[in-house]
């Protein structure tokens, strides 16, 4: 995703439009000429997957077709069997596309909408999701399966929602502006929730030739309600996710109703459902704090640096990574990409290329840890630990070593301990106390 703005353009150019009659709407002659000249050709799937999946440490491609989840193909054709199995459900709804039909030629509107839907589908599949259904301007997807850890399914869904917004803001909207399409009201709303094995039932609905295999249960149904309650370009997370993985308060917030005269907080799904005794269930919901989570996500540093009002500072001479250690072997851990077991040794490693000009040595690497979630002792929870400093000095040639090492590195050893999402910040300052680099690595723990 190094050239994010071109991603949507590539998908748009793949859409094959065969309709030859294009009418001019609202003096859009120049716009028509621009899009009539675009090349068409066979659809090439997976173009986004090939760029997104490696970022999250995922190999190959996800070619799962739309429809029945692969785990439940045996329930097709009207089977009367049902299966209890967890799932993380995601609804994404595209907002503001309906009005485009009033402003632009239908060929262009179709091509644009199709490219947006294709983008959603491929982002979902990039994070191992299974696209269940396309409903006009909305897409429903499931994350997880019998070969996937429950926590990892949630991580995939949250990373999918984050990547969708990143692509929207970094690629789709700039493309719209560049091509003269009104982007003011266009955006996404996402709802996401998790249901455990006892809360989700899979079965075949309808008849063998007029039906589908799907999931039912409160968390599944809540995902669509959460989407409807999300603000534009926001993701609403449900109680199932919040509670199951100890999602930290630092990375979510209560929605505020700004339409009423008085400020009103909305901590639970409305209207508030009642149980069989008539008591309100007070189903919790929180908006994902996109900018905060983006900081500790696996999305590229040079991309995070230019998106939104965030604090990431990139430097071409500096690399910052995390590794798990087993049997003296280091394996890269992609930030916030999956959940690790407890008591796994970690190595946080920052490497500086000393041959890049403009670095004022000695440099200081400052590592700052933060643990989040209810399993963390309250006196430590969601607070920065005292920073740990490492000095990085530029190797100097001497009579024994005419060509010293090009790279210097600082290492911090840690291990996984508490369930939830935790972070390690790394800052690099030079001898003049100028900050050259700042980034966070998120670590998810079961």
What is the β-strand count?
A: 21
- Please give the count of helices: 10
Q: Give the overall average pLDDT.
A: 90
Q: Can you tell me the residue ranges where pLDDT is under 50 for at least 5 consecutive residues?
A: 19-43
Helix content: 10-25%
Describe the main β-sheet briefly: 7 strands, mixed
Distance between the termini: 29 Å
Strand neighbour order, sheet with most strands: 3-4-2-5-8-12-9
Sheet-strand content, in percent, reads 25-35%
Would you tell me the structural class of the helices and strands? alpha+beta
What Rg is obtained from the alpha carbons, in whole angstroms?
Answer: 24 Å
Taken from the alpha-carbon principal axes, the silhouette is: globular
Topology:
Elements: H1 5-14, H2 29-36, H3 49-52, E1 82-84, E2 87-95, H4 100-103, H5 106-126, E3 129-135, E4 138-143, H6 150-178, E5 187-195, E6 201-206, E7 211-216, H7 218-229, E8 234-238, H8 239-244, E9 252-253, E10 255-257, E11 264-266, E12 285-288, H9 290-295, H10 301-304, E13 318-326, E14 329-333, E15 339-340, E16 345-353, E17 363-370, E18 388-392, E19 407-415, E20 420-429, E21 435-445
Parallel strand pairs: 5-8, 15-21
Antiparallel strand pairs: 1-6, 2-4, 2-5, 3-4, 6-7, 8-12, 9-12, 10-11, 13-14, 13-16, 16-19, 17-18, 17-20, 20-21
Helix pairs in contact: 1-5, 1-6, 5-6
